[in-house]
Amino acid sequence: MVVLNRIYTRTGDDGETGLGDGTRVRKDAVRVEAYGTVDEANAALGVVRLHVDGAVDAVLSRIQNDLFDVGADLCTPDTGVELPYEPLRIIDTQVAWLEEQIDRTNADLPSLRSFVLPFGCPAAVHLHVARTVVRRAERLMVGLSAHEKVTAAAIKYMNRLSDFLFVLSRFENAKAQGDVLWVPGENR
Predict the structure, then answer these.
(1) Contact 61, 49 (CB under 8 A)
(2) Domain topology for 24-174
(3) Pick from 101, 106, 98: which is nearest to 154 by CA?
(4) Confidence (pTM)
(5) How many Cα neighbours within 13 Å face the side chain of 71?
(6) Which residues pair with 116 in a beta bridge?
């Protein structure tokens, strides 16, 4: 359980922060960059939620909660040392749920014959911004995994999430004017 009585602690004034296991690291460490970028993606989804209806909003609400799970997973390194608590880790059922959302949302969309430009209705544009932040978080997590253990399901979750946000942007645009497609070499 999280209890936040005081917001500022002054413990980060020297450029370090504490991980979930109590380890102190620099604030520019790849692990901190990764979970900070997950937090940024979560904030971008908060903006998206201002532009969508109840059913989509409910799905995004669940995803926002899952992104806090991803952040909790990342902020507690798996060093093999037993902790006095069970660290929160992303699990495969969370990934499978996202795959179900992708399939359901994509089922009635027309096939693509070109790449989609990140434009359209406000919800779609904000979904594209969130998608690119999710991709950045995923890249940071993959980079981190080259040096430290990262939960495989957490990386999969972020990969599927960017796919879902792409499909959801198309879904939102389908309710408006449709996709805005890239026309290769149009301005040569």
Answers:
(1) yes
(2) Hypothetical Protein Ta1238; Chain: A; (1.20.1200)
(3) 98
(4) 0.93
(5) 18
(6) 181
